[in-house]
Amino acid sequence: MVASLVVPAFLQFYVVPPQVAMASPDTVTYYFNAYGAEVWEDSPASMTDDNLDTYASTNNAGEFQLNNANNCSGTGLGPISKVELRAYGYGDGGDFIYLRPVFTAGDGTNHTWTPGTSPGWSPYYNITSDTNAPTSWNWSNVQELDVDVVYDGLAKPNPLYIAKVEIWVTYTPNVPPTVDEPTVTLSMTPQSQAWVNVTITDNNKLSDLSTVETVLFYDADGSYTDPGASPTPDTQTLAIMTWYASNDTFAIQSGSPSTWSIDNATCTHPALTEYTGDWKFSFQPGKVATETTGKWFARVNATDSASEVGSNHTTTGSDMQWYGEITVSTATVDFGTVDLGSAFATNNKTATVKNIANGNYNEEAKTDDGSGNGKWLGVTANVTLNTAGTPGSGEFSLAIDDTTTLASSVNMSTAYQAINSTGVQTGEAGYPSGDHGLWLALGAAGIEPTEYSGTIYFQIANG
Fold it and tell me: What is the mean pLDDT of residues 90-95?
């Protein structure tokens, strides 16, 4: 049997990129409303008073007036594609003026106009790419723009009159960014890496964004409630993570002191030359971020150069797993010399122990000789643990509490047991701030006079 396989010599297909809605260009006009030390001979203020019926004038060839302010506030309206100048005035039909833009970097090009004998507007002069013009215009560049109005007469007795100089800006009207619903790690654990991912679109390209802010917060009722315009960071309930375009970094606010952190090495964002892309916030929740099931939500705000904000939020809450840690700062407790038959009240010491937990917890303790049996070891003999608190011959008992109150203590054994009523969520500083009480009782006989030692173990458990 002969089998054949036909392989096409040429395969062609097309991928259609995502379509981003683009706004149509628009224009806005400003005028120069102040002048400096260099002025025209007569009524220089009339060139900056926004009145087409009053004129500054001069008959001095080479005289110029520097108009050094305009009424643009600098507020962004959208990406700028063109900037032009024009003037309103008249002359004798033969004299001419230069409109010369003055940029932060220096003087621009001379643009020549010969006014007619009747009042009217000059043509628009495109200064977008003039000498010393900004490489990429923004609205602060427009606000900072000045102009020299230079009279270049032909030595005739007729003056030239100018009433106004305007700036004409062509731009693409700003459309707020759009933010898709973010996604959050479904089950987070304090001090372990977690993520918030979000897709953002800006019709002016992503380079138009100034910040992307994620508010990650605990909502006790289990449904999304907006945290407000300026929520307060809190180590237990709310962290604000922000990407800043100005220095291309990710930062976090979560109260103080705090063990929340954000990892700039694993946070990512797309190429800012694109129109749409994903921001990934990589972070570690703090130790006391509230334990819960399905009650952590995220809101993402994307703010652009015109201060327009796009926003979206999760609709399903994420979990925060239980976290606890215990620190024992006291390395050794020495009861010194203890009398046979002495009771708990006679022999008491303290140990410094701190618990940190993001939810209810139990602090537990046990004691033994290090090998799991119920003895403490002496130099020449051993002593046996009595777990009832009533030591007999050759026995000792040990009581412990998370306060220094004997009445609330528990008798220790070789198995872990709770030494406190159920603890509740702590702050970053932990609990308690005071000491744990330890009490020792001895049987009345059967204990050789020597030094005995054992180990007390602590642990923290989900309560």
Answer: 89
> Could you tell me if 285 and 194 are in contact, meaning their C-beta atoms sit under 8 angstroms apart?
yes
CA distance 130 to 112: 14
In a domain, 82, yes or no: yes
- Range of 144's domain? 26-171
Q: Which among 153, 171, 189 is the end of a domain?
A: 171
DSSP assignment of 344-402 equals: GGGSEEEE-EEEEESS-EEEEEEEESSSSSSEEEESS-EEEEPTTS---TTEEEEEEES
Give the pLDDT score at 382.
94
Mean pLDDT along residues 165-171: 97
Give residue-wise pLDDT tens across range 231-259: 999 999 999 999 999 999 999 999 999 99
User: For residue 439, what are the CA distances in angstroms to 283, 332, 406, 408?
Assistant: 44, 14, 8, 12
pLDDT at 93: 85
Q: Position 382: which residue type? A: N
| Confidence category of residue 7, pLDDT binned at 50, 70, 90 | very low
Q: What is the CATH number of the domain that holds 309?
A: 2.60.40
Whole-number Cα distances in Å, 187 to 149, 197, 218, 428: 67, 14, 13, 21
Q: Both 366 and 454 in a single domain?
A: yes
Q: Using an 8 Å Cβ cutoff, are 245 and 177 in contact? A: no
Last residue of a domain, one of 261, 293, 320: 320
- Asked whether residue 360 is domain-assigned, the answer is yes
In angstroms, the CA 78 to CA 23 distance is 10
| Complete DSSP assignment for 53-100 | T--EEE--TT-EEEE-EES------S-EEEEEEEEEEE-SSS-EEEEE
Q: How far apart are CA 239 and CA 226, in angstroms?
A: 14
This model's pTM is above 0.70: yes
Within 167-298, residue ranges assigned H as helices are none
User: What pLDDT is stored for residue 152 in this prediction?
Assistant: 86
Q: Is the pLDDT of residue 13 over 50?
A: no
CATH code at position 64: 2.60.120.260
Q: Is 245 helix (H, G, I), strand (E, B) or coil?
A: coil
The pair of structure tokens assigned to 171 is 């731009």
Contact (CB, 8 A) for 320 and 285 = yes
Amino acid at 377: L
d(CA 204, CA 245) in angstroms, rounded, equals 15
pLDDT tens digits, 265-300? 999 999 999 999 999 999 999 999 999 999 999 999
Angle at 424 between CA 420 and CA 428, to 5 degrees: 115
- Over residues 342-352, mean pLDDT: 96
Q: How many domains is the chain built from?
A: 3
- Claim to verify: residue 193 and residue 105 sit in the same structural domain: no
